Amino acid sequence: MQPPSTATTDDVALAERLEYWEYWNQRALVGLRCSSPAPDRFHARSTQRALDGSVLTRIQGSQHVVDRSVQRIAAVPKHSVFVNVLLGGTAFLYHAGGLRTLRAGDSFVHTTMTPYLLGFEHDMDLLIVDIDAQLAPEAWSRRTAPSPEIRTTSEASRRLARDGLRVLHDPRSGDDAHERLARHALGVMAGGSETELARERALGLIRAGLGDPAFSVAALASAMHVSERQLRRWFSDQDRGPGAAILEERLQRARLVLRERADFTMSDVAAACGFGSASAFARAFRARFGASPSEFRNRG
């Protein structure tokens, strides 16, 4: 097996870094457009290793956005399935199905023939397993234009991250690590266990109901036709229960609204995200992010 290869922008002139990173992506990963709101501070580094039937890549970098548009797909086609785990930072994924936010530990699966825009708000760390579409499970290999599928932190994604880093950075890793990596990637594509699938459905319902201040753990359990006790069981191996998950999703939505809707008052933002009042929203926001909503908006 070939040793890992690396690429970095460190030795590239600042004015040429984004162009270089686009070139590297097209040559080694997938053709896309790369931009940054802070191009004078952009930097990125990749570590990549070819395996049987797949390519494993770790990308670490600063704030930036990559865009796999319809035009770029036509110009640089590639038939692969990407299984991704966000190792560090936060991100947003915009595609035909809408806008979704991602946190460290979340994973997502998509084909490279599907348009998407992936952005990183701050320093980022992303692990990608690039699988030839012909070797992917039938459910993915035959799908030419599905929306990306996002999984919250799961046992499969944790194991994929652990063994992926081991394969990339530990020269002693053997065939058993590579086989486990393939199994974990398949697990993420399949959607994980029954509990993980139920939790993913719960989070989808939470995100759909964020605008309703009456949306609660009881309302979520009712929508899923289970007891609150069963609902809490599904979240028992997470670092937050369903109530905390509802609050976190409201706050993450609020951050996006504050950035994107400068015309919204704080009362408007609170209402859009399901908070009962602007004061309740402000208290929760400060407790979570260490700043008031107004201070966050003014920072840009």
Structure description:
- By secondary structure, the chain is α+β, with helices and mostly antiparallel strands.
- The chain folds into 2 domains: 5-192, Jelly Rolls, CATH 2.60.120.10; 195-298, Arc Repressor Mutant, subunit A (Orthogonal Bundle).
- The protein is built from 12 helices and 12 strands.
- The chain has a 7-stranded antiparallel sheet with strand order 1-3-4-11-6-9-12, with helices on one face. Strands 2-5-10-7-8 form a 5-stranded antiparallel sheet.
- The N and C termini lie far apart (47 Å).
Brief digest:
The chain is an alpha+beta fold and 300 residues long. It has twelve helices and twelve strands. It folds into two domains: 188 residues, Sandwich (Jelly Rolls); 104 residues, Homeodomain-like (Arc Repressor Mutant, subunit A).
